[in-house]
Amino acid sequence: MKLLLDTHILIWVAKDSPMLSSKARSLIANLDHEVYFSAASLWEVAIKNGLSRSGIVIDTVGLRRQLLLNGYH
Fold first, then answer.
1. Tens-digit pLDDT profile for residues 4-51
2. Do the beta carbons of residue 37 and residue 70 sit within 8 Å?
3. What pLDDT is recorded for position 64?
């Protein structure tokens, strides 16, 4: 199965948030699944960081690097 993660899911994965359901965690962790993220999601994270309204501070470059190291496409 191919999974395309939206921005909220990427943030929750990066922060190991309890908002991420156990079913979603299981699907993402399944090595038989291909996990994808969009460059637009990284752009959205950078915007959220710049606006400082969401309380989210995520190193966008580091996030991208970690996603790729984890085998995300």
1. 999 989 888 888 899 999 999 999 999 999 999 999 999 998 888 788
2. no
3. 92
Phi, psi (5° rounding) for residue 16?
Answer: 50, 50
The angle that helices 7-14 and 39-51 make with each other, rounded to 10 degrees, is 70
Distances (CA, A) of 18 to 6, 7, 44, 46, 70: 16, 16, 21, 22, 20
Sorted by where each begins, the domain ranges of the chain are 2-69
- Please report the DSSP string for the chain in residue order: -EEEE-HHHHHHHHTT-TTS-HHHHHHHH-TTSEEEE-HHHHHHHHHHHHHT-SS----HHHHHHHHHHTT--
The identity of residue 65, as a single letter, is: R
Q: Look up residue 17 and give its two tokens.
A: 């948030």
